[in-house]
């Protein structure tokens, strides 16, 4: 038994090396659109499920209709998830287009979901519409279905473009599709179709397709047929040619404009009769005045003879009264009407050619694209079905300053060109000076967005670095960002666009002011924030801080041990900077970033010390000195330097009340991290140079760790949801020496990855689509019972086990009492899973007792997040214990003891963070309720 090949009009045309074209369907849900597309001559249907409200049933109906109409149904699914890919193929699609491809594995996942064995892992089924719903053995039907199924990954991300050769080489990938609009957006040139970088992207993708025998599709350019033709001549072989919505809108707009022209023609004819409406009889106009011709109607010409004679001129009309069907000849009300044309008696007279405006239309002008300037609508606007608004220059010749001449216009244009040239020269000079000033430890952070250095949105901070002379010309102080802002401002003025949101000066968002505002919030008592609250010890502006190795080595080592939360920091480079600063007699000759890193690392280590009382003044002094170096560091306009410095400031604020508001600093950090695109792309380590202190593939995940820890402890929203994160968690180095990293560093990165896994569990628990509590509890147990193995038991990079227990306890509390924005009921109704409740009680008790034991031994390093975790553990313990029947007084005494220990811990925290005293007062009230007996604690049985 043989199985007939599946009819596939689009594939057959591609095999003939012809250009196939599809019609996108995202508006019309009924199957009539399929027949219309077939009649119109399209080769395929591009059914849009990513950018439409189509459900699976609608998509399947359109696909089946396409199969029976003989037109290929292709579906663009929202993601590579097999629940989308395989189901639309089972529903009748002959091809699947998958967006958001960022790696070779993403493309391989699409192949696995779309192709049957042996190419992929698509689940076999029978009765497919491709075979007229017949039951055919899989051994016979699967190879035929595989041949007919087009797997089309999209090249619309920078990562996919970088890996396009490897993606095209995958077996099972039949074609690639360039998503032009998303690709230009990722390149930083949205909608700039003329940019040579886009052409280079097409050339690179075409080369990969030709090398591996795959077809290339063109997407997102149906309004630019000139570019479509260009790319097809280069080698592209199928095109997303049109979309149902714009086609309908364009045709409707065209007919509406034609009817408006008809109405104007009728009104003009009536006006020419001097107010006497023409009387129409049998299609002939009888309106005659004083023997003159009044016009022609329906092909009847009325002569000026006293005797009424009528000559019929077939299909000939006067220019004034003719009803045209060509949209290019429809007059616009917004333009001055031309003088009435004289009626020609000759049957050979031709209609006037389409008029052209002297200026591009408003839409093409603002989009900086070519405009053919046809009236009443240019080709670009007509194809899209949008209103084409003519631009005009209006001058008041009666004004006092009237007298604009061509010479003056040309002189103004030349002055603009000269100004732009001057600004561009400043850009080059500023970049040259910037590169020459970069020194050891301050690496160039070049983001791979458009091949150029991404500048931060923050402007120039008016602080002159130490030992740097002030240039005599104030203009030289302008940064590259200011220069580019000036160019943008100049463009706004030259184009005469609205300046409602544009000031007379370039925009300068002074990030140092934002950071200073966060630092000004007093960690002891936020209600008493002031501009000086974060700097309690006065220090001369130019007074150097003399540090000794004996005093500071243990503190910076303590910070490095804790830096498992900051895996992006290269410990060896940090210690090199520490040695350079310590060995220097005068830190003025050191780069500001080196001093900043050293000062703040030592200050954080001191703040973590149980003996913080001895070092409080020095830690605050170092923090103040680091904050004063911040403007000169931010002046470099390096995004990674900005993130690094503010992240260290946030860490300091967690352990020291003089550090300001951690929450506000983290909000600023996450905003800048997202603005730099670090949640979507990873910078190549090679671009930063060998002296970089950063492990760039870990910098986003360091911010992620602190954000999740802060938000889950304080009950605040996350800075970013996992749905928008595209970068992968870096793999931990193996147990061998192939990575070239010492064992302590390998241990640290493995543990950092373990912490990221916990943060992702927290995201799942607190997310809007929270999984089952049993599922979350199972994941947490696996995380808790299988910590990462260490490469060397003697490694100095160890993390206290009670810290991992604290993280596990925090997750347990969130499982039994999820945030209010989730859809899970508080306390689960855990009757079916008492082991979760019991485990939570044990975890809370164990955490409080461990921390209490460390506090009595004077070995505890307290952050304000510890206070939040202690309070949560105590309250959760009391509430859950009350749900368990108590048969004797032993349980009551044990509960009272746990709460008392937690109260002691919070009292110690409140000595450093005064606002925490509210937590301690609450636990004292809770202790009183426990002493009053069971009845007074019934309120605790309610949700926490």
Strand order of the largest sheet: 1-2-3-4-5-6-7-8
Taking all Cα atoms into account, the compactness measure Rg is 37 Å
The helix-and-strand class reads mainly alpha
Q: Note poorly predicted spans.
A: 276-349, 395-404, 438-481, 483-509, 530-541, 793-797, 826-831, 939-944
Quick one: biggest sheet? Answer: 8 strands, parallel, barrel
**End-to-end span in angstroms?**
67 Å
What characteristic shape results from the CA principal axes? globular
Tally the helices: what do you get? 31
Strand content: 5-15%
Please give the domain count. 4
Q: Total strand count, please?
A: 13
Helix content: 40-55%
Describe the structure.
With 944 residues, the protein is mainly α. It has 4 domains: 9-236, TIM Barrel (Alpha-Beta Barrel); 246-272 and 316-343 and 352-394, Irregular (CD2-Gal4), CATH 4.10.240.10; 422-730, no CATH class; 827-941, no CATH class. Helices cover 48% and strands 6% of the residues. It is built from 31 helices and 13 strands. The strands form 3 sheets. The protein has an 8-stranded parallel β-barrel with strand order 1-2-3-4-5-6-7-8, surrounded by 10 helices. A 3-stranded antiparallel sheet has the order 11-12-13, with no helix packed on it. β12 (300-302) and β13 form a beta hairpin. α21 (612-634) packs antiparallel against α22 (639-655), α25 runs parallel beside α27 (801-816) and α29 runs antiparallel to α30 (889-910). The longest helix is centred in the middle third of the chain and has 32 residues, at 406-437. The radius of gyration is 37 Å and the shape is globular. The chain starts with 8 loop residues before the first helix and ends in a 12-residue tail after the last helix. Mean pLDDT is 76; it is low at 276-349, 395-404, 438-481, 483-509, 530-541, 793-797, 826-831 and 939-944. Residues 282-299 have a biased composition (Low complexity). It is found in: Nucleus. It comes from Fusarium longipes. Residues 406-433 form a coiled coil. Keywords: Coiled coil, DNA-binding, Metal-binding, Nucleus, Transcription, Transcription regulation, Zinc.
């Amino acid at each position: 038994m043989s199985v007939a090949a599946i009819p596939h009009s689009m594939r057959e045309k591609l095999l003939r090396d012809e250009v196939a074209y599809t019609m996108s369907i995202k508006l019309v849900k009924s199957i009539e659109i399929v027949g219309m597309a077939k009649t119109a001559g399209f080769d395929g249907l591009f059914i849009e499920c990513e950018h439409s409200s189509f459900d699976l049933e609608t998509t399947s109906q359109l696909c089946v209709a396409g199969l029976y109409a003989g037109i290929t149904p292709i579906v663009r699914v929202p993601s590579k998830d097999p629940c989308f890919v395989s189901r639309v193929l089972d529903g009748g699609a002959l091809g699947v287009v998958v967006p958001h491809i960022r790696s070779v594995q993403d493309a391989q996942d699409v192949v696995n979901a779309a192709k049957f064995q042996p190419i992929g892992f698509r689940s076999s089924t029978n009765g497919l519409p491709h075979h007229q719903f017949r039951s055919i053995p899989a051994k016979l039907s699967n190879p035929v279905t595989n041949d007919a199924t087009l797997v089309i990954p999209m090249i619309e991300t920078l990562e996919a473009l970088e890996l396009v050769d490897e993606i095209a080489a995958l077996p099972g990938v039949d074609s690639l599709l360039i998503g032009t609009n998303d690709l230009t957006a990722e390149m930083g040139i949205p909608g700039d179709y003329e940019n040579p970088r886009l052409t280079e992207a097409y050339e690179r993708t075409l080369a990969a397709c030709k090398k591996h025998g795959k077809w290339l599709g063109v997407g997102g350019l149906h309004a630019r047929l000139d570019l479509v033709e260009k790319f097809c001549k280069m080698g592209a072989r199928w095109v997303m040619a049109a979309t149902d919505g714009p086609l309908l809108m364009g045709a409707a707009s065209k007919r509406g404009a034609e009817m408006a022209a008809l109405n104007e023609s009728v009104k003009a004819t009536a006006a020419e009769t001097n107010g006497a409406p023409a009387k129409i009889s049998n299609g002939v106009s009888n309106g005659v005045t004083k023997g003159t011709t009044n016009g022609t109607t329906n092909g009847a010409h009325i002569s000026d003879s006293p005797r009424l004679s009528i000559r019929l001129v077939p299909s000939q009309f006067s220019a004034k009264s003719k009803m045209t069907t060509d949209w290019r000849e429809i007059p616009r009300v917004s333009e001055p009407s031309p003088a009435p044309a004289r009626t020609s008696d000759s049957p050979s007279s031709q209609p006037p050619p389409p008029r052209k405006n002297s200026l591009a239309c408003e839409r093409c002008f603002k989009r900086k694209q070519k405009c053919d300037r046809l009236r009443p609508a240019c080709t670009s606007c007509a194809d899209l079905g949008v209103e084409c608004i003519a631009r005009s220059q209006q001058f008041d010749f009666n004004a006092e300053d009237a007298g604009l001449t061509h010479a003056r216009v040309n002189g103004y244009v030349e002055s603009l060109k000269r100004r732009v040239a001057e600004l561009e020269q400043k850009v080059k000079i500023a970049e040259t000076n910037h590169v020459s000033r970069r020194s050891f430890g301050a690496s160039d952070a070049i983001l791979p967005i458009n091949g150029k250095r991404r500048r931060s949105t923050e402007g120039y901070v008016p602080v002159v670095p130490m030992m740097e002379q002030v240039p005599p010309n104030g203009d030289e102080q302008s940064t590259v960002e200011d220069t580019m802002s000036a160019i943008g401002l100049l463009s706004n003025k030259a184009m005469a666009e609205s300046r409602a949101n544009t000031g007379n000066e370039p925009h300068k968002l002074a990030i140092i002011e934002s950071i200073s505002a966060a630092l000004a919030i007093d960690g002891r008592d936020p209600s008493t924030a002031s501009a000086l609250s974060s700097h309690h010890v006065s220090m001369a502006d130019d007074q150097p801080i003399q540090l000794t190795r004996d005093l500071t080595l243990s503190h910076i080592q303590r910070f490095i041990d804790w830096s498992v939360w900051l895996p992006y920091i290269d410990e060896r480079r940090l210690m090199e900077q520490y040695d350079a600063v310590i060995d220097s007699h005068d830190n003025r000759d050191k780069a500001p970033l080196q001093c900043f890193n050293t000062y703040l690392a030592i200050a954080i280590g001191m703040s973590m010390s149980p003996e913080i009382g001895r070092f409080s003044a020095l830690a605050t002094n170092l923090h103040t000195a680091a904050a004063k170096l911040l403007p000169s560091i931010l002046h470099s306009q390096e995004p990674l330097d900005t993130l690094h410095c503010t992240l260290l400031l946030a860490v300091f604020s967690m352990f020291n009340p003089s550090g300001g508001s951690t929450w506000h600093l983290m909000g600023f950090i996450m905003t800048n991290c997202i603005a730099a695109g670090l949640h979507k792309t990873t910078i190549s380590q090679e671009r930063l140079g060998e002296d970089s202190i950063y492990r760039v593939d870990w910098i986003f995940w360091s911010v992620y760790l602190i954000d999740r820890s802060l938000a889950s402890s304080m009950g605040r929203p996350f800075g970013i949801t996992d749905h928008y994160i595209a970068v992968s968690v870096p793999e931990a180095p193996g147990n061998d020496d192939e990575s070239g990293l010492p064992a302590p560093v390998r241990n640290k990165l493995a543990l950092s990855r373990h912490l990221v896994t916990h943060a992702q569990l927290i995201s799942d628990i607190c997310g809007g689509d929270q999984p089952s509590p049993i599922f979350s509890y199972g994941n947490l147990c696996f995380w808790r019972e299988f910590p990462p193995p260490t490469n060397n038991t003697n490694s100095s990079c160890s993390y206290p086990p009670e810290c991992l227990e604290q993280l596990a306890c925090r997750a347990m509390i969130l499982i039994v009492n999820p945030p209010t924005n989730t859809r899970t009921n508080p306390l689960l109704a855990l009757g079916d899973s008492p082991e979760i409740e019991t485990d939570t009680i044990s975890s809370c008790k164990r955490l409080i007792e461990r921390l209490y034991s460390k506090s009595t031994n004077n070995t505890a390093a307290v952050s304000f997040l510890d206070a939040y975790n202690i309070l949560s553990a105590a309250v959760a313990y009391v509430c859950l214990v009350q749900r368990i029947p108590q048969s004797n007084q032993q349980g009551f005494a044990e509960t009272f003891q746990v709460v008392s220990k937690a109260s002691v811990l919070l009292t110690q925290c409140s000595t450093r963070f005064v606002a925490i005293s509210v937590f301690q007062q609450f636990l004292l009230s809770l202790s009183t309720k426990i002493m009053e007996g069971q009845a007074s604690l019934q309120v605790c049985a309610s949700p926490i």
